[in-house]
Amino acid sequence: MVEETFEAPTPKEAYALAKAKYPHLERLELLQARQREDRDGKLSAEITVAVPEEAYLESLGMSEEEELIREIQELQDQMHRMKAAAGLTTAEDEKVQKVLSLLESKGLRREWLEAHLEPVLGTPVAADEALLLSYLLEEIDEGLEVVPEELSTPRVMMMVGPTGVGKTTTIAKLAARYSYLLDREYKVALINLDTWRAGAYEQLDNFARILHLEHRRAERIEEFAQHLDALKDYDVVLVDTAGISPYDTDRLIKTIEFLKSVQNREITTSLVISATAKYEDIREIYEHFNFIRVDNAIVTKFDETQRVGDLIAFLTEKHLPVSYISTGQKVPDDLLPASKERILEAFTGELHA
């Protein structure tokens, strides 16, 4: 498959360009969608789709030359890594491979590990297993980013993510935390954009009634902007969205349209992801939602896994900061501001398990 990108004023128009180029394909797999801003501040939509290589080459009238160039570049990268490792003694190489295999078995990506290993190859660090492991753990620590909890100005926070990761429960935890657990009681309201899942509004409405919070539903695009305007005096507005699979283009475009309808309020978008998910799944979810301009991640089900290497691999690769970590089902107790120490503690616990 070949990845091809299309750009247009809106995501619908970008997707239409892809369909127009490949009318004979029954289905185009959407890999990524994002928003771009030029130097003048003008926004446009960019989508990336997967196209069968034969169809792609046919559309361009090209040979397989580009594929050959890509393979040559990959070989050059491999040769570079081999040259860097060539200075190691057999004993040093065994130590390096042992540490790499240990971290890779815990979910970290081989490519990431090798890239961060190169600066210390041939030094005393590479010759000492404990030092090498400590060095790579420090690299992980530097690669992780967290977002401090900050409510000094009014905020609109939208939760996005796939079905079943706990977006609605996370919103309930945040609402209770902001309303009752901090230095003062913040004025919190909820907006529900999930018009697909049966009982979605009722579930959040139940939390709202228990916590005595304002709760509104927006079924049409214009209603969302109207609700935000009516709630402008609130400290925090939390927005729940429909769970979207990586292949549900219609729901993604609808969520994007909700966002683009608001011009006078800044909206922070949090991608809710499960700590139990595999690296490939997390990356696919992120690529799908990144068109919405994901600002940070909220990690759920942190208590349900003893393997967080996949999560760390993704976070360090994409440089996506984490704002909160959910460690259970209790509202609001099982939600904590993210910290590098908590994430690394879980990972180093794996190494000694």
Automatic annotation (TrEMBL):
Chief location: membrane
One Pfam match, given by its short name, reads SRP54
Localization: Cell membrane
Domain AAA+ ATPase intervals: 153-304
Listed GO MF terms: GTP binding; GTPase activity; signal recognition particle binding
Query: GO terms for CC?
Result: plasma membrane
The protein here is known as: Flagellar biosynthesis protein FlhF
Source organism per entry reads Nitratifractor salsuginis (strain DSM 16511 / JCM 12458 / E9I37-1)
Q: What is the lineage of its organism?
A: Bacteria, Pseudomonadati, Campylobacterota, Epsilonproteobacteria, Campylobacterales
